[in-house]
Amino acid sequence: MILTAAIGLPLAGALTLAVIPRWREAAARRFATAVALLSLLCLVLAWRRFTPGGELFQLVEEVPWVPGLGMAWRLGVDGIALAVASMSALVFVASIMYPVDTQHRAGPYYAWMLFLQGVSLGVFLALDLLLFYVFFDLSLVGMFFLIGRWGHGDRQRSALKFFLYTFCGSLLMLLAFIGLYLSVTPHSFDMRVLIAEQPMVGSAIPAGLVFLGLMIGLAIKTPLVPFHTWLPQAHVDAPAPASAILAGVLLKMGTFGMLRIPFAMMRETFAAYAWVIALVAVISILYGASVALGQRNLKRRIAYTSINHMGYTVLGIAVAGALLSGSEAARQLALVGATVEMVAHGLITGSLFLICGSFWQRTGEYEMARFGGLAKRAPLLTGFTVLAAFASLGLPGLAGFVAEFHVFAGTFSVYPWLAVIGIFGILITAALFLLTLQQLFFGELPEQWSGFSDLAGREKLVLGALAAAFVVIGIAPQFLLGIIEASAGWLVGAR
Q1: Which of 24, 112, 336, 430 could form a disulfide with 393 if both were Cys (CB 3.0 to 4.6 A apart)?
Q2: 137 pLDDT band (50/70/90 cuts)?
């Protein structure tokens, strides 16, 4: 029951924080951090028990829920789910620990953070379509309250737009799930059954409609162009730890869902439309990087880079599913790269959004033109920002390079022309991060920031842990690649 514990502990912690009144700030934070760490420990134990090269889905837990409808509490992991869930749990621990203004409502704030951790892990660990949908929708509720109650600026409007936009996408997904459920006999929401039976093979029009519903709903969550418009303002108005979770965890629900559902359950249909998905991914890569380059607000700039980086992930998934047979090695490379990109982006962009929180706590500003010369006052903040920026632009020796190299190596073998075009996204990303570092940390220090303080204890601890994770993946990635490659090989038919 280790996976159930990983989900249940944060939910129980959230309930405890919610029902006990008048939590002190430090006590609520310590309690929430301890619970989040226990959930992470459960996934570490799952990692130790997982056998690369064994069964596709392992550590399966199943309890009947509504047997007449084929519904059950079904949890399990393959290497891809385990990697993404473990990264997510680490980002939650970091975000809960990081300094933030809870506006004298520490209990409810940390309750929603733990609630969001529980349901987010549920998305990655679910092996039941309906259970996946329940957790997917509940994540919207948690983020809605975090933005609407503890954000800044036009926070209520941003929270409402985020919720309505993504909820519309989830309703499309629900209709598609019902289509998949009805396409197998006996009817079942069991993902393992749907993956094994490939139920909609040969039914072009129904399969196309189900596939369209799935892909639009998941593209909104990812987000891909043109379904991205909810994202930038939600990030700008959210508290920094919530932004770290939104980028580091919630966006992965879109790409992970693409991989788990249409990719795995509708291989024939996915292969037919893979070139369209790959084309949209490349457009998102270039658009996200180009628009980010034009932003003057630090948080908005990083938000648009998420569109760029999730484009790399979707490109890898599209390449992996482009053929029913042939080029297995290249397609496996692309899928491994897409998974590593999910992990790397969560760690790197989570760090960048937490760094934005450090700026906000000290200045109440995100406008980059107001800064300059901060390297003199805050060398540690400068160092962590430089490291995260270089990781995000794909510098060798850091996690971003490992991910992007795998994605483009696989893409060159299947869609070489798209790989060539997509490379320009890396160049633009490099330019925008170098300009960001120049504007924030070099040049003359404005008089108003003469008292700007460097990172404090918890900030150093959290950013140091996240930086260590994406540096280790960049230098010695085999521990991560080892659990991903076997699952990726199974999914593309290389095993």
Answers
A1: 430
A2: very high
Tokens 């869902």 — which residue?
257
Q: Residue 65, SS3?
A: strand
Q: Is 115 exposed, middle or buried (0-12, 13-18, 19+ CB in 10 A)?
A: buried
Tokens of 410: 């696989």
Residue 325 is encoded by which pair of tokens? 């047979």
Report the alpha-carbon distance of residue 307 to residue 291 in Å, rounded.
10
Element (H, E) at 123: helix 106-125
Lookup result for tokens 């080892």? 482
Residues in the chain: 495
200 near 206, Cβ under 8 Å?
yes
The structure tokens listed for 183 are 């396409």
DSSP string, 171-213: HHHHHHHHHHHHTSSS---BHHHHHHH-TTTT-HHHHHHHHHH
Q: Tokens representing 127?
A: 């092996």
| Tokens linked to 335 | 């899928």
Of 285, 220, 218, 201, nearest in space to 258 by CA:
218
The three-state secondary structure class of 454 is coil
Model's pTM, two decimal places?
0.94
**Longest CA span, the chain:** 71
| DSSP symbol at 370 | G
Residue 28 to residue 100: CA distance in whole angstroms: 13
| Sign of the dihedral defined by the CA atoms of residues 249, 251, 254, 256, in that order | negative
Q: What is the pLDDT of residues 42-51, one digit of tens each?
A: 999 999 999 8
Q: Do residues 241 and 357 touch, judged by C-beta distance below 8 A? A: yes
Beta carbons within 10 angstroms of residue 272's beta carbon? 17
Amino acid 492: pLDDT: 86
Query: Which residues have C-beta within 8 Å of that of residue 25, sequence separation ≥ 6?
Result: 102, 106
* pLDDT tens column, 147-180: 999 988 788 888 898 898 889 889 999 999 999 9
Instruction: Check residue 76 and give its pLDDT.
Output: 94
SS3 category, 418: helix
Give 326's pLDDT tier (boundaries 50, 70, 90). Answer: low
Mapped onto helix, strand or coil, the DSSP state of residue 445 is: coil
- For tokens 């473990």, the residue is 86
Residue 468, burial from CB neighbour count under 10 angstroms (0-12, 13-18, 19+): exposed
Nearest to 480 by CA among 342, 309, 318: 342
Instruction: Give Cβ neighbours of residue 360 (< 8 Å, ≥ 6 apart).
Output: 152, 240, 366
Query: Across the strands, what pairs with 73?
Result: 63
Residue 48, Cβ neighbours under 10 Å: how many?
7
CA distance 420 to 286: 12
Hey, is 297 helix, strand or coil?
strand
Contact (Cβ atoms closer than 8 angstroms) between residue 237 and residue 152: yes
